[in-house]
Predict the structure.
Amino acid sequence: MQTITATDVYAEDLTPGLVLELGSHTMTEAEIVDFASQWDPQFFHTDPERAACEGQLGGLIASGLHTLSVYQRLSILARTEFWHVIGGAGLRDVRFRRAVRPGDVLTGRSVVEELTLEPERQRGLAAFAGELTNQHGKPVLQLVMSAYLVSRPA
Amino acid sequence: MQTITATDVYAEDLTPGLVLELGSHTMTEAEIVDFASQWDPQFFHTDPERAACEGQLGGLIASGLHTLSVYQRLSILARTEFWHVIGGAGLRDVRFRRAVRPGDVLTGRSVVEELTLEPERQRGLAAFAGELTNQHGKPVLQLVMSAYLVSRPA
């Protein structure tokens, strides 16, 4: 397995195949309700009682955006190096594979899928294939996230 | 232009071509910093002073996940009908087209792109092509979001 050995991470350090273990996050009912109350106010994300009675998936489930945000939080907190990020470029193939419920423990993993250097702009675009799995080892989220990083100075 | 006339929205009501105007949201520095501090803690999203000096994009910018969450919030709040949603399925082709900064006013629009009915499961999968534009009429976010809805009862 490849690991990062640099203390400053530039685009060139993100070689395809590099695996990043992102650690875990426990989903609480309070956090699920909080997130969704602000950003995705649908009753099956915000009202545990009504979700239990009327929800099509049997009880409160986390917003997909919340799950996606957990993935991003883990990605950033897992960095022990300083990453010279310019900004995010986009997301593709985001799949909410299973319902995420209070008490679920989500564990993240990311693999560098592709690196496209743009030497004339002193930057590179890295694509990461990411996944969150629950405490049963089942995937709940899969995605590809792309971000621009600064190129290593000559 | 097609509009929704039902008070209860089932999968069958989301015919391709249907346009949904989602209203607007003003981005504040406080909200940008708050969101990113929890979900995307990178200095160019959380630290205005450092972002101004060291940020590659010249000052504080919103997390892409924050912009995406604004889109979802507007989508839900724009509904005057009761939508029989089962849950989100995924996102594709999410593009962060331009930096979003404090003071930007984002306006949303969504068009039903595709509807795939699954009669044997009494549901349908609707895909929405969504966009947020800023106060200069320039796109900042483009995406396709898919969600399952209950089929209209016979």
